[in-house]
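We treat protein structure as text, and this decision shapes the records that our systems exchange. The tokens are whole numbers drawn from a learned vocabulary of local backbone shapes. Below, we set out a record of this kind in full and without editing:
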Amino acid sequence: MKLFFSSMRREKGTLYSLVTRYYIFFAAAVLLLAFIVVRLTDESLEMANITIDVDKIINNKEALKSEKYDRLSTGGMPGKGSYFEVLDEAAKVIYSSDKSKSNEYSPEVLQFIPDVSGNTYYYLDSVIGDDGKNRGYILNKYMTVTSDEDEQFGLGGIAVFDEDRNVIFQNEGINIKHISDSEYKILFENDEDTYLQKFEFTTGSGDVRTMLIHQDFSSSSANNAYRKIYMTAILSFLFILSIFVVFFVLNTAFAVRKPIKMLQNAMDDFGSGNKDVAITYSGPKEFVQIMDSFNEMAGKLATAEREKEKLEEERQKILADISHDLKTPVTVIQGYARAVADGLVPESEVNKYLETISRKSDNLAELINSFYEYSKLEHPQFRIYKKECDICEYFREYLAIKYSELDLSGYEMEINIPEKVIKKSIDEAQLKRVFENIISNSVKSNPKGTVIYAGMEVLEGKTDIDNKVYRNDNVSKTAGSERGSKNDRMAQNYDDRSPKVVIYLGDNGVGVPAAIRDDVFKPFIVGDDARTSGKGTGLGLAIAKQIIEAHGGTIRLMDENESDYSTMFEIIL
């Protein structure tokens, strides 16, 4: 639980949310960059002054007054086809900045050319009949109209012409009787890709001149100016975008590479022998889980390493115990046999020595047999062979035979087996070995007159928690406690859905020493007096545990306060 809350505190979203957050920041930065580039591009277009600008020509007053027109330049106008012409009062061209042009004008034509001031502008539109043919023309005159309140640009006059361009109707703002071909050409059929404006000025000698300014918007120069600005904007956008991409990729790579590098370093340290490796990391949930899994794995491996060292120590101790247990009877047998063989033993003592040799040989044989049985149970190919039987009757028959044997040896028995038929699949021979080992321990460890208890309970339809409570109380019941009646009533409240068999074996003898109670099922664990007397090998309970677990059951030494007996083993099948 502590690790879980620690992980929750260290988790900062998921990897998906991290990448999504980076992507949102990246997209927002790109949009902001695009907005800035568009704004700067618009400002650059305005600053480039690609729109119509004739100030550089008409503001050169000195050149105009002195009629030194070659000093005027069209550099302020877009397009290579831009040029200007100067006309006298008769509308005759007296100067052209483009010598290749030879235009002719009339005074009547000039009135239809818009002035650079933009105060007057004519617009001619044709009138198409229902049959699709031209039925005439409408001429609109736009000009700046001044009133008492303000000044505004609007329609200053209108005239209607027939298909021969003769006037049909006109108001006060226009006084034109007929539109000539040259005038029509200026108004409607200008074949030049230029924008035509006029500017009237007076020379130093008092002559009135008219300048016609042709501004070219069709040539590639204007397009090149636009293209240059747009290409600069695009390249700038791509360059800054590439910086954003690199920054985004590096941040994402760092967020992923950092935990991977930490994990790699920890694995290297772990591989080099440092088992106390722990990674402290805060970041995406997936990486936190990986780090926690690694820490858990490292902890388990470190624990396994310590367990391995502990097992090795236990193995060394087992070997020492085996050596001790084998050496004691062998030494006695060798000494007594040599004494008898060498004639050192009086004739009257020979039988006594031979009986001692025989007894030690039996002890040695029993010890070796216990080693063999334990090693056989430890073998991976060990199997038990179950068959179904009435376990109550099986236990009753075993105790009937054991009762006579114990009675002859000076021990008493208390037996409590229910009068029921309970079918269980067991290995009868192996389960008998369990009973023998436990009862033999009681006989070897206790003096004559000790009461050995054997009982069985059938727990029907209980949960594991109920079973535990019922079992613990019933040990006292089977030992003669008054608490049994309470548990008898509890047992009646359960059905027979999942019966469990609990077997109790124990005694009221000296009990198990407190120093070895927690380790009684480990091999070669015996009391000091048992080892020195040669009455125990320390394998009986270890063998019993192996057999019970092979049956899928459990065995445990009950606590002293759980039973009225000093020693009580609980076996659950």
About this structure: The radius of gyration is 59 Å. Residues 1-9, 462-498, 528-534 have pLDDT under 50 and may be disordered.
